[in-house]
Design goal:
alpha/beta; four-stranded parallel sheet; two-stranded antiparallel sheet; 11 helices; 6 strands; globular; Phosphofurin acidic cluster sorting protein 1/2 C-terminal domain-containing protein; signal; transmembrane transporter binding
Length: about 260
């Protein structure tokens, strides 16, 4: 038996050009994301772990809500056509509830998830519809932009499902989905994307955005809020550069044929 390393890569879509994406990719190969991130205080790491544990606990207590399937069925209307984008929002926090309300008023393709069961149902449905599209069509599907709106622990929950599903799929599936990060709270990955994409940084790392969405408590009155819909729409429409970010590495064991 022989062991070989295998790296699973998550592809984020950014606002920079393809040429800028290549340069960012070259810059990013020398160090890992973990090495680039500043050391977080112990209490912040603990809070992040608590959030992830609470999501896992809720998964055992609840089943996916009907509204999740209703929203998905409204977006995924045909086996012969896939949507350009889907916005997954963590609505267990006030930030996600506010964002989902604003975006839904503009009829954007929003899926509201409150528990891990909701996220799993949404991701299962998306993967299933992509598979059905491939079964019904000879052409390769255009990558779906999947925006993940929430804090860091919410992105982590989505990534677990991404890893679980793609471990049973062919390498082609890496090109069927592209992820966009919309930060609602503490988010090291978003901060990293802001360091390599100045347009992304201007949308989601400025004071106006952080003052609104990084507060633990909902403001009584939202005053002088940034144009949330415009920022999200600019990101969804303008993202055309792919940045690959390794998220997992494993040693795969296989036997050579004699």
């Amino acid at each position: 038996a022989t062991c070989r390393p295998s790296v699973l890569t998550l592809v984020f879509w950014c606002l920079f050009s393809r040429q800028e994406a290549k340069l960012a990719g070259r810059r990013g190969r020398s160090t890992s994301l973990k090495e680039r991130q500043p050391n977080r205080p112990q209490n912040e790491r603990a809070n992040s772990l608590d959030n992830e544990r609470s999501l896992d606990t809720r998964c055992h207590l609840q089943i996916p809500r009907k509204t999740v399937y209703d929203q998905l069925n409204h977006i995924l209307v045909s086996d012969h056509h896939l949507p350009d984008s889907i916005i997954l929002i963590n609505t267990s926090d006030w930030q996600g509830q506010y964002l989902s309300g604003v975006l839904q008023n503009q009829h954007l393709p929003v899926v509201c998830t409150c528990t891990t069961a909701d996220i799993q149902a949404a991701f299962n449905t998306i993967v299933s519809r992509i598979q059905r599209f491939c079964n019904c069509n000879s052409q390769t599907p255009v990558p779906i932009k999947i925006a993940v709106a929430g804090a860091q622990h919410y992105l982590g929950a989505v990534l677990r499902l991404f890893v679980d599903h793609l471990s049973y799929k062919t390498p082609d599936w890496l090109g069927y989905m592209r992820f966009l990060v919309i930060p609602l709270g503490s988010h090291p990955v978003s901060k990293y994307l802001g360091t390599i994409d100045y347009r992304y940084n201007s949308l989601f790392q400025d004071t106006a955005w952080s003052d609104l969405f990084y507060k633990p408590e909902a403001p009584v009155i939202v005053q002088e809020s940034p144009d949330v819909v415009s920022r999200v729409t600019q990101y969804m429409v303008g993202a055309n550069g792919a940045h690959q970010l390794p998220i997992a590495e494993a040693m795969l064991t296989y036997k050579q044929k004699r």
